[in-house]
Amino acid sequence: MATRAETVYAGLVPEDTIARFDVHQIIQHIGLMVSFVLLVITGIPLKFHDWAISQAWIGMWGGIEVTRSIHYFGAWLMVGVGFYHLYYLWYSTAILKKPFPIKMIPSLSDFIKLFQELGYYVGLRKEMPRYDRFNWKEKFDYWALFWGVPVMAVSGFILMFPVFATRFLPGWVVPTALVAHSDEAMLALTWIVMVHIFFNHFTPGVFPMNTSIFTGRVPRERYRRDHPLEYDRLMGIPEVVDDEADNEGIDEKNDEGADETGQGNN
Questions:
Q1: Across the strands, what pairs with 17?
Q2: Taking the domains of the chain in order of start, what are their residue ranges?
Q3: First CA to last CA across the chain, in angstroms?
Q4: Rounded distance, CA 74 to CA 170, Å?
Q5: Using CA atoms, how far apart are residues 189 and 169, in angstroms rounded to an integer?
Q6: How crowded is residue 232: how many other Cβ atoms within 10 Å of its Cβ?
Q7: Which residues contact 88 (CB under 8 A, 6 or more apart)?
Q8: Using one digit for the tens of pLDDT, what is the confidence trace for 175-216?
Q9: Buried b / exposed e across 139-170, counting CB within 10 Å, b at 16+?
Q10: Strand, coil or helix: what is 213?
Q11: Burial status of residue 181 (CB atoms within 10 A of its CB: 0-12, 13-18, 19 or more)
Q12: Residue 18 to residue 182: CA distance in whole angstroms
C-alpha cells in the first residue's frame, strides 16, 4: 500500500513524464535557491545601506545585526550545498560509476551547436541542433557556479573575519574583497534574474513555471523537444550519428532516467 507521501507525490507528477533529477540534485538545487534568496534579500540592503528603503527593510528584519546574521546563515548554507555537491560528484563518479560529470564537461560540440543555434535564430538554419542530456546553455549555467561561489565564499570569509584574515594577508585584501564580493553579487543577481529564470521558466512551453527541479521529472514532449538525442536513447530509438555523441563518447543506453542526471537546468 502506498504511503500518504507517495500518494500526494503521485498526484503532483503527471504520468507522461521522464525522470531527470534524483533526490540529491533536487535537495541541492533547493538549498542553493534558498541560500541565494537569503543572500539577496539581506545583502542588497547591506550594500546600499544609506538608502531609505534599505534602512526600512533592515529595520523590518530587526536591525543590521540580525540582517547580517541571516546573511551569514545564507552564506554558510550555500557553502554547505557546494561541498554536498562536490561529495555527490565524487561518490557518483568513483563509487557508482555514473557518467554525469563527463557529460557535463564542455566539448567542441557545444561551441559548434552554439553557432548552429544562433544560425537558427537568424534564419540561416531550418532546424535547431539536436541536443543530448545537456545543451551549451545548461553547461554554462552549471560551470558559472564554479567561478561565482568560490569568489563569493573567499571574499565573504575575509569580510566576515577581517582581523583573522589580515593576520596572514596584507590589509588591502579587505577593501579588495569588498569590491569583489559586491560586484560578483550584482553580476550573479543580474544573471539569475535576466538569463537563468527567463530560459528556465518564461520560455514558451514552460511558462509560468518549470517544476522539474522540484518533482525531478520533465514532461515527455518537452524532453523530446529539448533533448532529442537522449530521448531517442531512452526510448530505444536507433541513434542518429551526431557530433556531440561522438565527441563525448556517449554510447551507453540510459534506461534509469534520473540515475544518470546532473545539475543542468530544465
A1: 219
A2: 17-235
A3: 32
A4: 27
A5: 29
A6: 17
A7: 24, 25, 28
A8: 999 999 999 999 999 999 888 888 888 888 788 888 888 999
A9: bebbebbeebbebbbebbbbbeebeebeeeee
A10: helix
A11: buried
A12: 40
Q: What is the pLDDT of residues 2-28, one digit of tens each?
A: 444 444 344 444 568 888 889 999 999
The predicted model gives 107-113 an average pLDDT of 92
Which residues 6+ apart lie within 8 Å of 85 measured at CB? 28, 263
Q: Which three cell numbers stand for residue 112?
A: 559548434
Give me the residue label for grid cell 588591502: 172
Round to whole Å and give the CA distance between 187 and 205.
28
Question: Which DSSP letter does residue 257 get?
Answer: G
Which pTM does this prediction carry? 0.78
Residues 6+ apart with CB under 8 A from 58: 45, 46, 49, 64, 67
d(CA 75, CA 65) in angstroms, rounded, equals 15
Domain 17-235 indexed as CATH 3.30.530.20: no
**Distance in angstroms (rounded) separating the CA atoms of residues 129 and 243:** 11
